[in-house]
Amino acid sequence: MKKTILIIDDELSIRMLLENFLGRSYEVTTSNDGMEALKSLEEGNMPDLIVADIQMPNMDGYELLQKIKESGFFKHIPIIMLSGIESSVERVKCLKLGANDYIVKPFNPEELAIRIENLIL
Fold first, then answer.
1. pLDDT tens-digit profile, the chain (121 residues)
2. Which residue in 30, 96, 103, 119 could disulfide with 78, CB within 3.0 to 4.6 Å?
């Protein structure tokens, strides 16, 4: 059975790119923002890994990351944060909150795929 990846990004182009690229190897589901993603998780949709943008409406990546890592049910799910911000401060903030990895946009989808493999295989 294919592993499932949840992509959370408010940019449709990023969701589509990742869905097409990662869809070859994984079952891919998407959400527009952290609020929608959290609702999906609470409904029992448990991905093997989450790729989340930081800057999103309604609930940003930081808040989502915090809620997931504080939850007894979801804290084991690996999370890769995507950000348009190339900053050591941002990276450290995400890692401290419990992110497993941090990738700066624009990114190479192949690099993301390798990082995903390293976390869930």
1. 899 999 999 999 999 999 999 999 999 999 999 999 999 999 999 999 999 999 999 999 999 999 999 999 999 999 999 999 888 999 999 999 999 999 999 999 999 999 999 999 8
2. 119
pTM: 0.96
CA separation for the pair 48, 6 (Å, rounded): 8
Transcribe the chain into DSSP letters: ---EEEEE-S-HHHHHHHHHHHTTTSEEEEESSHHHHHHHHHTT---SEEEEESS-SSS-HHHHHHHHHH-TTTTTS-EEEEES---HHHHHHHHHHT-SEEEESS--HHHHHHHHHHHH-
For tokens 């959370």, the residue is 8
100 Cα distance to chain centroid = 10
- 31 φ, ψ to 5°? -140, 150
User: Using an 8 Å Cβ cutoff, are 3 and 48 in contact?
Assistant: yes
CA distances for 40 relative to 9, 15, 46, angstroms: 14, 16, 8
